[in-house]
Amino acid sequence: MVRRFALTVVAVLMAGVGSLGLSPQPTENAFTVMGIVEMSTSSDGRETVVSIDRDDAVQPADGLVDHAFRLQHATGPRFAYRGAGAATFQAHRLTVAVTPDRGWVFTVASREQAFLPQTTSYASARVQGLSHHWGLTTQRSADEVAAALFAGACNGTDASDCSECQAGGPGVQGCTLGNPEGPSCSADCTEGYFACCNVGSCRCCLQINGWPRARMAPRAR
Questions:
Q1: Residues 85-106: what's their mean pLDDT?
Q2: In a domain, 198, yes or no
Q3: What is the number of domains present in the chain?
Q4: Residue 107 lies in a domain
Q5: 3-state secondary structure of 42
Q6: Order of strands, sheet of 81-90, starting from the edge strand that comes earlier in the sequence
Q7: Residues 148-171, buried b or exposed e (16+ Cβ, 10 A)?
């Protein structure tokens, strides 16, 4: 039943890509995956993790996450969901479809001009950072993956995720660190942030008083 429902969701999603506001321009590394989706927001309201345990005719769900996305955003709405769904990921945007009428569209702030206006009833949100995690980083339960990604946030003056970058760095808004036999991740950041990729930890960092930190934008007024 779950797989059949997910197949219906992804079929509608792929058939209506234009209506979701997905422009044909930013398609680098674009893909859609369906399965069991879990979405939760951190206790401080500044990060949301979306994880997907793939479930389709080729790869049945096994209780382990195959893809995870960390959304860095200003405090505001909290996101929570667990159930069948499909996610489409491409440059600057993540779309999570639950039903043809329910879903979320997360777009990297300052990148909206890359897409056609959204015409669906899906909730939309602007994010400062969108990171994708796969490989050994995610071969755990959804709860374990979310806890690990939330734990990677910088607190106070702790900028361990941003002080050194294997890929990206100040002045760079996107980076990818791939490892065929290990953890892999990428980061896509809005203006004013820089991408920092290290093994198993890709995120967006804000420069504050000369110290790179991965804190979010100021609280929305």
A1: 95
A2: no
A3: 1
A4: yes
A5: coil
A6: 123-127, 102-108, 93-99, 81-90, 31-41, 47-54, 67-72, 129-135, 183-189, 174-177
A7: bbbebbbeeeebebbeebebbbee
DSSP SS3 for 16? coil
**Three-state secondary-structure class, residue 143:** helix
Residue 15 token pair: 């058939």
Residue 26 located in a structural domain = yes
H/E element holding 147? helix 142-151
Q: Within a domain: residue 161?
A: no
* φ and ψ of 189, to 5 deg: -125, 155
In this structure, what DSSP letter does residue 22 have? -
Average pLDDT, rounded, for the chain: 81
Question: Where does the pLDDT of residue 30 fall: very low under 50, low under 70, confident under 90, or very high at 90 and above?
Answer: confident
- pTM across the whole model: 0.81
What are 159-216's pLDDT values in tens digits?
456 878 999 999 899 999 987 777 899 999 999 999 999 887 899 998 665 555 554 4
Measured CA to CA in angstroms, residue 168 lies from 150, 153, 203 at distances of 21, 18, 10
Six token digits for residue 218: 């100021």
pLDDT at 152: 67
- Quote the domain boundaries for residue 71: 2-153
